[in-house]
Amino acid sequence: MGIAERKQREKEIRLAEIKKSAASVFQKKGYATATVDEIARLCEISKTQIYQYFKSKDDLLYSILEPEIARLTERIGILVKNGKEPASETIRKIFTVSYEHYDQNPDVYQMLWQHNIHALPDHKLNRLEHMLRENTHHMETAIKKGIDQGLFREVDPKLAAIVVWSLYMGVYHHQAKRMLGRKTDYRKSTIDAALELILQGLKRK
Fold it and tell me: Could you tell me if 140 and 111 lie in one domain?
């Protein structure tokens, strides 16, 4: 490995360490009250070093959320491109992929849904909201496919997509809160049950 490659590798490691520390502090303290000083202490570096990589606390939060939301949006987008697959299976896969993503990235879930990200600058907030709306659009596409396939009854695909995502996130939020201080995790089983109710509601009689 050459000098340039080694320096790039060291930079990537440092960035990952800073993001990990920031995610931990944001989750424990909340984004609004968390400070760069606390992140620096946890990461065992100076605040000046953090500012060498990130312009602000907003920039740091965005750098954690944006790539993960983009990755989920891309995965869901790939699923809905399968035009031959029954729409019900596509929606099942969307639920599975979404659950796995948040389960594997709990810090992202906490920061995105349980803290006030609206403090972010408009252009960054707009980018995050655009990707989340894109996920709703993907769900709309899947529901419209089900109608075209004759599997789903005639409904407004856009409105149905909003309702489906709202139900999904509502169930996930509720069960995630119930997990606090408890060992039993009912998120997956409850989401699966909600999915079956949703598909039964969409099913053409």
Answer: yes
CA dist., res. 66 & res. 60, Å (int) = 10
Q: Which residue has the higher pLDDT, 18 or 107?
A: 18
**Amino acid symbol at 193:** A
Q: What is the CATH number of the domain that holds 43?
A: 1.10.10.60
What distance in Å separates the CA atoms of residue 175 and residue 168, rounded to the nearest whole number? 11
How many whole angstroms separate alpha carbon 167 and alpha carbon 197?
11
**DSSP type of residue 9:** H
Residues 70 and 125 reside in one and the same domain: yes
Closest CA to 168 of 204, 141, 193, 142: 193
Task: Say if residue 39 is in the same domain as residue 71.
Answer: no
Report the predicted TM-score, pTM, of the whole model to 2 decimal places: 0.85
| Distance, CA of 159 to CA of 136 (rounded, Å) | 10
- Residue 71 shares a structural domain with residue 147: yes
